[in-house]
Amino acid sequence: MRVISLSVDGIFQAAQRGLYTWLANQDADFICLQDLRALERELEKPEFQLKGYHAYFFDSGTKHYNGVAIYTRQQPKALIYGLGFASGVDMEGRYLQVDFEQLSVGSLLAPSASSELESQEVKIKFFDDFQAHLDKITRKRREYIFCGNWQMAHTPKDVSNSAKNQHNSGFLPHERQWLSQLFNQIGYVDAFRKVNKDSDEYSWWPNGEKGDGDGWRTDFHVVSNSLGGKVEYATIYKTQQFSSHMPVIIDYDIEL
């Protein structure tokens, strides 16, 4: 089963750069997109559909702000919009989930802490709430794949010039600690790192162009512990650029 995740910096621009032509040839079972910057009604046009896929979108209600999507070959049994946080931040076009018999796949766009709407405090509260959510669902007899733009990197090998960036949002000590707790204590798995240990694998280039400035790996597939051993292949696609982020492609030994 192939799952692709990409934060697109606006779906209109990514489409103009050939995203949908590329996706149509990837033989993916799930495609999770983030940061669409579009309203759902704008995405009902044929150019934003993929033949053979069911398409689902969740917008923020505000034009040009956030938005996530999931394309799936099989029709899901249920759709979940948001994560049920009391703050309501998760309902700003940040999370969409498709449920099947034993598997759930989510598309996540975390707060970036780069604007007045998305301060560091908002980001911290979002991940505190998300940790509580993950604690709760680990008791369910269900497997999860959370794909998305997590807006933070984990270890020094996930950020070029890590020493220089340790005081920047996305690589702050408490953010790295949160990820360590997620992987080491709560028990979820960084699927990419199960099979790819290279230190120069970056999925995001803040300056906008691959190779320009520092690279970060902020785009993860975070999976249930039971799925960690089912990761067969993981790569960051770098041949063609659709946004400042690169597609993360992971193959799993899973059948729905």
Automatic annotation (TrEMBL):
| Keyword Magnesium on entry | yes
- The answer to whether the entry has keyword Kinase is no
Q: Which domain of life is it from?
A: Bacteria
The record ties this protein, via InterPro entries, to:
AP_endonuc_1, Endo/exonu/phosph_ase_sf, Endo/exonuclease/phosphatase
Keywords assigned by UniProt, alphabetized: Hydrolase, Magnesium, Metal-binding
Cofactor dependence is on: Mg(2+)
The Endonuclease/exonuclease/phosphatase domain is annotated at 17-228
* Molecular function in Gene Ontology: double-stranded DNA 3'-5' DNA exonuclease activity
Entry EC no(s): 3.1.11.2
Top EC class per UniProt? hydrolase
Annotated family: Belongs to the DNA repair enzymes AP/ExoA family.
Protein name in the entry:
Exodeoxyribonuclease III
Annotated organism of origin: Cellvibrio fontiphilus
